[in-house]
Fold each of these.
Amino acid sequence: MIVAFSIAPGSPDESGSYAAAVAEAVRIVRSSGLPHETNAMFTNIEGEWDEVFGVLKQCTEAMTAHHPRVSLVVKADIRPGHTGMLTSKVRRIDEVLGEG
C-alpha cells in the first residue's frame, strides 16, 4: 500500500513556522526503512498495512507529545500483492508522456 499523509500541529511555533514539528515526523518516516518521499504538501510511504500505520502512529504520538492539537490527513492506495508502486506509478506516467 501507498499512504500519502500530512501531519501538522494545530498552530505554528513562535516564528509562525510548522517546520520543526513536521521535521520530526519526517525523521520518523526516514528512520522506518520503508520506501518514502516527501514533497511540499505530503509525505508518501509504502509498505504493509501494519508497517505504514505503525509509522503514522509514531508520528502522531511524537507530535501530540509537544502539541495539544494535531491535524492528520491520510490518503491510501491499497493494492494487495503489489510493491514498488511508489516509483513505478510515476514511471508509467513518464512513459506515456514520452519522458521515460
Amino acid sequence: MLRHDLWTDADLVPVRRLTYEDRAACMDLAVSRDWGPEDPKWRFLFDVAEVYGIDGPSGELAGCCTLTRYGTTSAAIGMVLVAERFEGRGLGRRLMTHAMGLAGVAVVSLYATEIGRPLYEKLGFRTTDRNVTHVGVFDGPRPDGPATRPVTDADLPRVLAGDLIAFGADRSDLLTTLFGAAEHFVVAEDGSGYAAAWRNTSMLVIGPVVADDARTARALIADIAAKDGGKVRVDALHAKTDLRDWLTASGVTPYFETSFMVVGGAALPGDQRRLWAPVTQAV
C-alpha cells in the first residue's frame, strides 16, 4: 500500500505489477473516467500485456497503465488512467516513466487522447500520424479482392512469419492468444494478408489487418463484417485514406480521432505500408 508521505514526490511513489485479481479495479477506474468497463479488452490485456498500477492511500487503485512488449525492439504503452481525485499529483507521469524504463531500448509508441497528449509530449513522444476510429454497420457491396477463409492451425506459422516482416517485431504471443480468442480470424486465399476480429462489449473490433495492399485489406474487412452483420469498429491511421474513404462509403463512419505518437518521432520497424489496422489502440 502507498505510504502517505510519498505523495509529496510522485517520483518516489511505488508502482506494482497488477495481477488478474486487479482486473475489476482497472475496469472501475476506466468507468470513472468515462472509458467504459470493456471487460473483454481487459481480459485480453492481462493475457498479452504487463499491467501496472499505483495504490491510493486507502488501498484503492489510483492509476494504471499497460506495457506490451514485442521482443526487445518495439513496445506499446496504453490504458494510462489516473483517478480524478488524484489528478495533478504526477501519477500519470510516474506510470509513464516506469513503463518507459521497463521498455529499455525498444521503440515505444502509443495512441493519445487530447487530454493525455501534452504529458506524452513532455516525455519526448512526437505525433507521427492521426488515428481515425470508424464505427458503424457495414452496408457496402463486397469489394473486388481475393477470396478469404478462416485461419487453420496449419496457417498460423505462415501468418506469424509474415506478420514479423510487416510489423518488424515479434508479436507472436499476442497473435497466438488472439487466434484462440477471436471471433473471426481469416486469411486471403492467395496469401496476401490476414485479419482478425474480437468482440469488445457491444461491437466487433476488426484488427489487426495486415495486407499487401488496400484491395486485400478491404476484402478481409468486408468478409468479416458480412459474417457478423452488426456494428463494427476499425481503427485506421489518417494516412490510410483509401481504406478510410471506403469504410465511410460502406457505412463505417469516422467516430473519433487520437494521435499516434512515438518516442522521438522515431521510425517504426517493419513495413508500415502493410499494416492497416491495429489489434486495439491499447497494444
Amino acid sequence: MAKIKPFKCVRPRKDLARDVAALPYDVYNSEEARDEVFGKPYSFLNIDRAETQFDKSVNIYDKKVYEKARDLFNEHVEKGVYLEDEDDAYYIYELTMDGRSQSGIVAVASVDDYLDGTIKKHENTLAKKEQDRINHVDTMSAQTGPIFLAYRDIETVNKVVEKVKKEEPIYNFTSDDGIIHRAWKISDKEDLGVITEGFAESDGLYIADGHHRAASAVKVALKRREANPEFTGDEEFNYFLSVIFPESELMIMDYNRVVKDLNGLSERELIEKLKENFDVKKTSYEFCEDGKVKIEDDKNSLKFASIKPANKGEVAMFLGNAWYKLIAHENIKSDDPVKGLDVAIVSDYILGPIFNITDLKNDPRIDFVGGIRGLCELERRCKNDMRVAFAMYPTSIQELFAVADAGMLMPPKSTWFEPKLRSGLFIHRF
C-alpha cells in the first residue's frame, strides 16, 4: 500500500503561471541557465538555479547561492507572485504534447514508503548530484521540483480525474516548446478520500523520473528527524512533492548512444564483430540536412521511418554516413528483467566487448541523446564529435515496473520521458 496525502500548495497566480513554469533544473548547465532566465524575472529557474543571480566567479554550490534561492522565493511570495492555498488538496496536472495527453495526481508521498521500498526505484543516484538538491531543499524548507511517479491504473482514481477535468482548470497555457499545460484543484472531501484510499490499496508506486530529487528529499527528511527526535511522522518534512501518473498514459522515448571512436577498429572490422551477435543490414545513406530529413516526400519518409527500430531486439546504427539495421540473435536475448532490456543488450554485446566501454556514467568516450532530438541529431553528432551512433528501441513502462519489482537496477540512461514536468507550478513547504 502507498501512502499519499493532499497538501497546502504554494503555487503561482493564474496570470503568471506561464511565466513561472520552468523545465527541471538539471536540463541546463550553468551557462544555459543564465541564458534561459535572461529577461524572465518570474521564471522558477531563477530560484532552481540561483547561481544565475551572481557573477560567474561565484561557485554554484556556495552556501549563499542556496540562501539566494530561499530569499528570492520568499520575495516572490510577499509580492503575490505565489499564493498559498488554505486547504489541503490534490491537484491534477495534465501535459499534452503532439496530441497525446497524460494526467497525473499532484500529491505528497511518504518518505517511509521510499525507505521501505513501497516506492520503487530503478536507478542509482550520484552523491554529488544529491548534495546539491539536499542543500537547495533544506535551505528553502520546500520541495520545488516534483518527483515523477507512476502507478498501475486504479479505476476509482481515474474516474475522479475524469470527473474533475470537466471543470474549469486553474491553469491553462502553452509553453514555448508547444506543450499544453492544464491543472485542476481537487478539494471535495469525498474525492480526496477516494484518491487516498485508492493508493492505500495499491501495490506501490514507481519512480519514473527524478531519482536524485527523491533521494535528496528523503535525506533532508532524515536530517529533520534527527534534529527533532520526538517527530510523529505527520510533519510535512516526512513527505515529498510528487506527480503520479497512471501506467496507461505514459510513454517512454528512446535514449540513444553516440561513441567518440571505434576503439582502434576499421568500419569493416566493426561490422564483422557486430555480425557475431546481430544480423547487420545496410539500409540507406544519410537522410538529414541541417537537422531535417533531406527530401520531404512520402517515399523518403517511409524509408526514413524504416530506419528507426520498430521492435525489441532492433538497433539502428549510423556509421560512415550510412544507416545500418542490427537485429539481435535469439541466443543473446533474455527473460531477465535487466539483461533482456535493449539498452542492456547494447551494453553487454556492443559497448563493452567491442568498444571497451563498461562505465556508462563516467567514460568520456560515450554520450547519450534523448529520443526527443530525433535521428537527425545522431547524424549531426557523428559528423561533428562522434564516430558511431546507436538508436534504441524504447524501454517500456512495463519493463521499468518489472525491473523495479525485482529490486534490480537498469543501466544508466535507459529511459527518456517526455513531456517534462515543469517546476514552480506546485510547491510543497515544510
